Amino acid sequence: MSKNSSRTPGRHFLHIPGPTPLPDRVLRAMDTPIIDHRGPEFARLAKRCLEGIKTIFKTTSPVIIYTATGTGAWEASLVNTLSPGDRVLMVETGQFATQWKNMAEKLGLKPEFIETDWRIGADPAVIEARLKDDKQHAIKAVCVLHNETATGCLSPVAEIRKAIDRAGHPALFMVDTISSLASTDYRHDEWGVDVTIGGAQKGLMLPPGMSFNALSDRALVASKNAKLPKSFWAWDDMLTMNKQGFFPYTPATQMLQGLAVAIDMLHEEGLDNVFARHDRLAEATRRAIRAWGLEIVCRDPRYYSPTVTAVLLPDGFDADALRALALDQFNISYGASFGPFAGKMFRIGHLGDTNELMILGALAAAEMSFALSGVPHKKGGVQAAMDYFVSAASSSARAAAE
Ligand code: PLP
User: Fold this and answer.
1) Cβ atoms within 10 A of the Cβ of 282, count?
2) Under a CB-based contact definition with an 8 Å cutoff, are residues 51 and 45 in contact?
3) What is the 375 CA–ligand 1 centroid distance (Å)?
């Protein structure tokens, strides 16, 4: 409750869509002495991480690990595969897609942006139609976000691959999984993705500061001819050094210590169980929002996100003020809003090391904050989420008994 002392009891509820709360086990793994990054112990750690991370992207190809946030891995994907003036097809799903497009422009590429109203994901049919029109194959890459974190819309990556194939187009396929990796199913090899971009601070339950490029053979071939300037991001030096378990520069040793353990934890839970948990938390959140009589920003259930749900407030209510009140009164952080939705919605992150009771807390704080700030709503959102969790738990108990 509102502070009249300098101490805030209990834990902060971090319900932004990443960075996500760190499991104690990951924190402990990082709280170890620094080791020599050119010594044998480091090589063992690096090889464990470089092999382990492939199982998360579901690939047998190399995965580059960068000491950089996701934005760095975006840049790496473009500069390693493309040349100045190349056309790239991107989809304006929201703020993060826009930032990637802006980066492409700054790097000297020519992005073509398929517009949306920021309330759906990327539509495979629209991509297919655009590629079919490109008879000269001027478009060199199709770049989409698997999950648009700004709006809570998930795009169908496997379907987009099929759409590219139906168009018979040779463009590279690059996918940002920064807010979906290790939270919902993703198959780099099976879905024919050439570069998958990932980040540490969401489903992987690590601090910000590490990011990834999962590669394909086609991406590696493209990198031999790509003319955009690069140095830190260059894949070739990294791949050569990684073979021995080393990096071309001083790597983020403690992040790797955490990564090794985070990968173990994901496999101990079982990736399919991790994905089912995220689906459950997302569904409970949506049921609460409907029970409140409020609107979910993602307007088509085909694109619902398993990791973040954005809630629209009725006209005239300030979502930033609501977030500030929730932080002050209940020690909880929700995600901010962007672009056309600035001040109109807030985002509930339900990803990473998160469970049912944490989500109920996040929903209860939202419901209480609506009441305190006069946002018109019906009661019963938390109840709707609890009812859903009860029914999900009883069906899984029945399934286990059969
Ligand atoms: N892409 C997506 C989908 C994101 O959600 C984010 C950040 O939240 C980024 C890219 C940028 O990553 P970073 O902030 O780690 O640089």
Assistant:
1) 24
2) no
3) 30
Q: Which atom of ligand 1 is nearest to the CA of 146?
A: 3
| CB 94, CB 118: distance < 8 Å | yes
For residue 21, the 8-state DSSP code is P
What are the pLDDT digits (tens) for 90-141?
A: 999 999 999 999 999 999 999 999 999 999 999 999 999 999 999 999 999 9
The answer to whether the Cα torsion of 371, 373, 374, 377 is positive or negative is negative
User: In this predicted structure, what is the pLDDT of residue 396?
Assistant: 85
Tens of pLDDT, residue by residue over 371-395, are: 999 999 999 999 999 999 999 999 8
What 267-272 contacts at long range (C-beta under 8 Å, 24+ apart), as own/partner pairs, is: 267/55, 271/56, 271/182, 271/185
d(Cα 303, Cα 121) in Å, to the nearest integer?
6
Distance in angstroms (rounded) separating the CA atoms of residues 130 and 329: 49
Would you state the pLDDT for residue 6?
A: 81
- Nearest CA-CA partner of 247 in 49, 61, 70, 77: 49
pLDDT tens-digit profile of 77-90? 999 999 999 999 99
Query: Pairing state of beta strands 308-312 and 345-349?
Result: antiparallel
Separation of first and last alpha carbons in the chain: 45
With a cut of 70, which residues of the chain have pLDDT below it?
1-4
Question: Rounded to the nearest whole angstrom, what is the distance from the C-alpha of residue 388 to the centroid of ligand 1?
Answer: 31
- pTM exceeding the 0.90 threshold for the entire prediction: yes
Binding site membership of 70 for ligand 1 (Cβ less than 6 Å): yes
Decide if 242 contacts 151 (C-beta within 8 A): no
